[in-house]
């Protein structure tokens, strides 16, 4: 866990940005019914903005793959799953919630599950393609989070850089990729 990865002002900006995306109709529903956006310019920029901090935390040189932001509502869940190879190293970041009570995020660690209660700006970094992760039903009103995905530059999934796109801020190569972290 990295407490305070993003400062409060940046979280507030991204919270508002996502609400504007919602109001403009650019968000879609994913498989778990959360409202989502893939590759949004603000979140794609965040991939590069936080990369040095994530490299310091992981001890790896990272290549960005994609960004994904979600707006959760009461009753949303996240079923136990693991991600595709483009999500080798993932940072999930809480951008804010109503009410101000964290929604636990659980990762099946090598020595047993690790449960994280993330406040705004806090992040959990994990091996998304390798470790299963999940959330119980959300009991709050609203929670906004972003998911930043990377691959290890020297690892077996380095070819997943940019998620098969020519660069950041481009649409997914395969239509079935959007909405599937």
Keywords:
Jelly Rolls; four-stranded antiparallel β-sheet; six-stranded antiparallel β-sheet; single chain; about 180 residues
Shape: globular
Mean pLDDT: 91
**Fraction of residues in β-strands:** 25-35%
Relative helix content: 10-25%
Number of strands: 10
Helix/strand class: alpha+beta
Distance between the termini: 20 Å
Description:
The chain is α+β, with helices and mostly antiparallel strands. The chain has one domain (8-158): Jelly Rolls. Helix content is 19%, strand content 33%. The chain is built from 2 helices and 10 strands; from the N terminus they run αββαββββββββ. It has helices spanning 8-24, 41-58; strands spanning 28-29, 35-38, 62-73, 78-81, 89-98, 105-109, 112-116, 123-126, 133-135, 142-152. The strands form 2 sheets. The protein has a 6-stranded antiparallel β-sheet with strand order 1-2-3-10-5-8, with helices on one face. It starts with 7 loop residues before the first helix and ends in a 29-residue tail after the last strand.
